[in-house]
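During the practical work, I selected for study one protein's amino acid sequence and its backbone structure tokens, as given directly below:
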Amino acid sequence: MGINSESDIEANLQIGPTDQGMVRLYVEGQGVEIPMDFTPEEAEEIASELMSSAKAARAKSS
């Protein structure tokens, strides 16, 4: 499965700080739980990539 492949898989995403000073992305769906911890700096980089991707997607849809 690639970035452009559609899927009927449903998952929940939770994002929040941990008690260890990390930022956790927690993905849960269909019997799978994936906790991913990032430093605040890494989380900011991910947020920047999300914003850039949203901007590019918005440009393609208009």
